[in-house]
């Protein structure tokens, strides 16, 4: 039995989708535990590019069960759209392949409206994806959310709608100056979604724990990244869920003792979307070069990603917070043509050297990176399939990343395709 968690070790978009897709071979169940359709996983399979926002990437593998845990917030329209698209492409043949936890919270129209309205105030802008994620989690914690099970019971849904909507409309109309939402329209539309989703609803905790007892391997697919965690990230420039390891247990009902490995995904450089501090960000031509070479545009919103050098201070934080047992280094090939590559090894803050990631975003904002420079390999590594195939300078760069982060590399990605991967060791064995 091996139950492995995949976690973003930076600010999201590290290439988790591809790694999950590769590791799915070793697991029978692939599970999402937090976030919602703010995530976007791009997968290249043969000549098809598939972008998934909600359904775990494991769905591309026949016979694997994909579970959306209670910790996820789910937009039913997006979910049903993804199913339809996957069915059209021939990926979902059996409805039993999908399970949606009955306790997960539903993203309602007011969540999206409030998210977008809040973001209009540029002085408080977080740069959210505008998908209603934060407001949905606010209502969950505020004990006024609507869960998937509520949606399937017309009387309960109607009662909750009557309780919640007047407050939301007051906020939308009187505070944000936006149009109010119509109860009847929401009731009809969302009851319709519930009918279509009903066949997928079940209990994530019972299903997964039974699977563990039966000897199945589980793969937990994290969304966003460590530094966007609501508790441990660069608050308030974070998402509203627990992206770190703790989110796995609260978001699925699987106890921590069942987790056997935690792989942190990191790009060979670093990116961030939205607002917030990013010490190793490049504002020059090199940043632009990384953006172009890495095609760094958000798969959910299309926004250009901010680009910078690999930040070892931030990765050490991710190693410690999540107890990472291995690193998967993605997009190493994006650095192919560079003469020199820098790595941020520490921060300088008001004349002080910081080796630890500051917990206060205001301090982080004022940190300047301390860099070490490495020679580039100036050659195409896309065909490398073992460590021995890599040029000496690429091997040296990876060895330095391992040394600085204190965590061994278990996988190296040298291109977007499944086969463009070096598997150093298998976290499932
Ligand atoms: P929200 O999750 O839409 O509330 O956005 C909060 C912050 O998290 C913003 O800075 C977003 O850009 C960022 N964010 C949310 N989801 C992702 C993701 O999947 N990748 C990268 N950044 C994300």
SS content category: alpha/beta
Q: List segments where confidence is low: pLDDT < 50 over at least 5 consecutive residues.
A: none
Radius of gyration: 22 Å
Query: How much helix, percentage-wise, in residues?
Result: 25-40%
CATH topology of the largest domain: Adenylosuccinate Synthetase, Chain A, domain 1
Rounded mean pLDDT score: 96
| CATH architecture call of the largest domain | 3-Layer(aba) Sandwich
Number of helices: 13
Shape: globular
The tally of strands reads: 20
List all distinct small molecules, including ions and cofactors, that are bound in this structure.
inosinic acid
Please summarize the sheet with the most strands. 10 strands, mixed
- The CATH superfamily of the largest domain appears as Adenylosuccinate Synthetase, subunit A, domain 1
Q: What's the structural domain tally?
A: 3
Helix and strand arrangement:
Elements: E1 3-8, H1 16-23, E2 29-32, E3 41-45, E4 48-52, E5 65-68, E6 73-74, H2 76-88, E7 98-101, E8 105-106, H3 109-119, H4 133-141, H5 148-151, H6 154-175, H7 183-197, E9 201-202, H8 204-213, E10 218-221, H9 246-250, E11 261-267, E12 270-272, H10 285-293, E13 306-308, E14 310-311, H11 312-322, E15 326-330, E16 340-349, E17 352-354, H12 361-365, E18 368-375, H13 392-405, E19 409-413, E20 421-423
Parallel strand pairs: 1-10, 1-11, 2-5, 2-10, 5-7, 6-8, 7-9, 11-15, 14-16, 15-19
Antiparallel strand pairs: 3-4, 12-13, 16-17, 16-18, 19-20
Helix pairs in contact: 3-4, 3-6
The structure holds inosinic acid.
């Amino acid at each position: 039995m091996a139950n492995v968690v995949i976690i973003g070790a930076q600010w999201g978009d590290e290439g988790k989708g591809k790694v999950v897709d590769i590791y799915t071979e070793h697991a029978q169940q692939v599970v999402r535990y937090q976030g919602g359709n703010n995530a976007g996983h791009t997968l290249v399979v043969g000549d098809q590019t598939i972008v998934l926002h909600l359904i775990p990437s494991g769905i591309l593998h026949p016979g694997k069960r994909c579970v959306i845990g209670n910790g996820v917030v789910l937009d039913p329209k997006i979910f049903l759209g993804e199913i339809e698209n996957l069915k059209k492409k021939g990926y979902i043949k059996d409805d039993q392949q999908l399970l949606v936890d009955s306790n997960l919270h539903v993203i309602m129209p007011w969540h999206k409206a409030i998210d977008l309205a809040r973001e209009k105030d540029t002085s408080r802008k977080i740069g959210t994806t505008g998908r209603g994620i934060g407001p949905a989690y606010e209502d969950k914690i505020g004990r006024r959310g609507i869960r998937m099970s509520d949606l399937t019971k017309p009387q309960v849904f109607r009662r909750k709608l009557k309780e919640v909507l007047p407050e939301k409309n007051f906020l939308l109309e009187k505070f944000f100056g936006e149009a109010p939402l119509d109860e009847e329209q929401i009731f009809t539309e969302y009851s319709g979604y519930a009918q279509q989703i009903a066949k997928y609803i079940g209990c994530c905790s019972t299903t997964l724990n039974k699977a563990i007892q039966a000897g199945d391997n589980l793969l937990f697919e994290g969304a966003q990244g460590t530094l966007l965690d609501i508790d441990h990230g660069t608050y308030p420039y974070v998402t509203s869920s627990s992206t770190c390891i703790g989110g796995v247990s609260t978001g699925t009902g699987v106890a921590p003792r069942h987790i056997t490995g935690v792989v942190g995904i990191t790009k060979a450089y670093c990116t961030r979307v939205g607002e917030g501090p990013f010490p190793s960000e490049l504002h020059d031509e090199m940043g632009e070069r990384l953006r172009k070479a890495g095609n760094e545009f958000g798969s959910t919103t299309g926004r250009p990603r901010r680009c910078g050098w690999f930040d070892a201070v931030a990765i050490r934080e991710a190693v410690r917070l999540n107890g990472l047992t291995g690193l998967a280094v993605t997009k190493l090939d994006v650095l192919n043509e560079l003469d020199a590559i820098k790595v941020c090894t520490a921060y300088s803050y008001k004349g002080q050297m910081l080796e630890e990631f500051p917990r206060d975003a205001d301090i982080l904002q004022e940190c300047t990176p301390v860099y070490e420079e490495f020679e580039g390999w100036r050659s195409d590594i896309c065909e490398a399939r073992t460590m021995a195939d890599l040029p000496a300078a690429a091997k040296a760069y990876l060895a330095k990343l391992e040394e600085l982060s204190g965590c061994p590399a278990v996988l190296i990605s040298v291109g977007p395709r499944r086969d463009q991967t070096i598997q150093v060791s298998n976290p499932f064995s």
